[in-house]
């Protein structure tokens, strides 16, 4: 038996769970997202936001407000709904993208202090997290773009021979040091270039 | 061309799950990655060249989503792969040894090994799927194989 045959026999035991695609598609039409995941946010670090399938909390009366967010370098109106709970805070951000499609971002979590204690994120923590997010987008045409607030940059040709890309993204006086790694992951810092090995 | 979501799920969900699992080594995260991938498939309504194109897109999307989860801080409830392994019904005892050896590989080698042996992707295809340079993929594949040989000795051929 070849290694390939052995490998394929071994990993053929892995199966995806059943997924009701009809219900998923219907929920999408209704604008409903089913709760599956909550992304915890460490207050000390920039974290990738929980896109798509996120936690959809029933509206139990939280803080809802209209906000302006940066989306791919443009200011976009969005509705932010924050639900404070005993142990954590969840948020839901709804906006319309450049193609006119309604999008939802869900996230939330806890802040960790220096002793590892967890407290629910404050409204300010969440606003800061949302407004300081960096996004790296690998487009279908092969180009790679980085977005930070009002700054958008085509970084396709800025990768070095080891597959790393180091760029500074500036929005006014705000500067973010972005490192994109060969596997597509990225790290950001407000004072120096860092990698996942740091 | 385009497959319905049901057709695409029936044909490729297990492939997407196995690829996502080889990234995150967690059943829940891998399922979530597949779920997200198919929501995106339904949402994007893209046109594809053929079924292989659809499969490649699904694999790439599931892999990227699984990577997001591994970077997330929300992995408190993750089940160790060793526990999940107990639920799997391997066809032969040596299969569980191979599974364990692969799970012990460093992340960067594991997915390359998976795409090469399970998906039968070439170096060039793996390079495109993972957005890594071909030279990098080649050396990672070579190093991954060497590590498997060290762990599995005679159960792993010199191919």
TrEMBL record, chain A:
Keywords: Membrane, Transmembrane, Transmembrane helix
TM segment ranges: 38-58
Highest taxon above the source species: Bacteria
Stated name of the protein: Uncharacterized protein
UniProtKB/TrEMBL annotation, chain B:
Gene3D superfamilies named among the record's database cross-references: 1.10.1740.10, Winged helix-like DNA-binding domain superfamily/Winged helix DNA-binding domain (1.10.10.10)
InterPro entries referenced in this protein's UniProt entry, alphabetically: RNA_pol_sigma-70-like, RNA_pol_sigma-70_dom, RNA_pol_sigma70_r2, RNA_pol_sigma70_r4_t2, RNA_pol_sigma_r2, RNA_pol_sigma_r3/r4-like, WH-like_DNA-bd_sf
Keywords tagged on the record: Sigma factor, Transcription, Transcription regulation
GO biological process, one term: DNA-templated transcription initiation
Bilayer-spanning residue ranges: none
Span of domain RNA polymerase sigma-70 region: 9-72
Domain RNA polymerase sigma factor 70 region 4 type: 98-148
Pfam families per record: Sigma70_r2 (PF04542), Sigma70_r4_2 (PF08281)
GO molecular function, a single term: sigma factor activity
Keyword Nucleus on entry: no
Family: Belongs to the sigma-70 factor family. ECF subfamily.
Cited NCBIfam families: sigma70-ECF
PANTHER family: RNA POLYMERASE ECF-TYPE SIGMA FACTO, RNA POLYMERASE SIGMA FACTOR
Name of protein: RNA polymerase sigma-70 factor, ECF subfamily
Gene source species: Ruminococcus albus
